[in-house]
Amino acid sequence: MKRISMMSKKMRVFSMILLGVFVCFSSFTLVFYSSIREMRRNYQEAVQNGEVTPSSENAQAENTQTGNARENSSAQSEATAYYFRSADIRLDRYNRYGKDMGFSSAEAYERGASAVINDPVALSKIDQDNGDWLFYVEESNELVIVSFDGVIKEYYYPAEGKAYFDSK
User: Residue ranges per domain, the chain?
Assistant: First the structure.
């Protein structure tokens, strides 16, 4: 009887420690993502107030005259590159959305999605249903969905516009 009691006491202590670690990790994650959201919101307000001029906006304005701004963006070379999980998926999404968006190739389509993700004026949030990141540029109605592991899943113009982004 005493041995069972000792075992259950150890299990309770272990469970409490495990619960404490989980609570700390969850709190840290919540604070971290809230901080990122707040920094992005502050930056967007600064851009709207004219206090900051993001370099990607300048590059997009210059490149609009020569073709798709996302396809030709020079700011892309300085930013983090994101990719589709495979060339087959990239080609499928390009055929489904990219051609209608005006991209000349699947690679250019992928670079365009990466440019949206790196765009400092893009709104972003986590889809509560599956943990995917959503990036949305209101001016151009571009939406990119990135999986929790950093892989591009979708890039398109949502028919519902910002309402679709807000509903996620």
Answer: 2-167
